[in-house]
Amino acid sequence: MLLIREKIASVKMVSQHLFNPTALQAGVPFHMIRDFYNYLYERMQPGDAVLAILSNDLFSTLQYADPITMRALPRITTFIYMNFPATSWGSKETTLAWLNNEEAKDGIE
Predict the structure, then answer these.
(1) Burial classification of residue 20, based on how many CB atoms lie within 10 Å of its CB (0-12 exposed, 13-18 middle, 19 or more buried)
(2) 13 — pLDDT class (breaks 50, 70, 90)
(3) What is the pTM of this model?
């Protein structure tokens, strides 16, 4: 049983290392990458700014985002559009459904 857990942890670590350079190259601020990764692959609740961005909630994004995030918003939204399944972002309802695992993963394991 322990061997299976170690393999799962290893796969997650490799996935995260592959995700990080893609996100960094796209211009996603380093301090946000873990939230995006955990949201997409682990379906974990992200911080307020990331959730607002994923929900297309401009006013909340302006409220919660720091200056680095604000400058990177065009690159962040392009990264999401190009790399996230359409069922994982776009509205509050969509993001809640994704977090509650109500939508198919669309190949994301």
Answers:
(1) middle
(2) low
(3) 0.77
Per residue in 21-48, pLDDT tens?
A: 888 888 999 889 999 999 999 999 999 9
Neighbours of 66 (CB within 10 A): 12
Q: Which sign does the torsion angle of CA 19, 86, 94, 50 carry?
A: positive
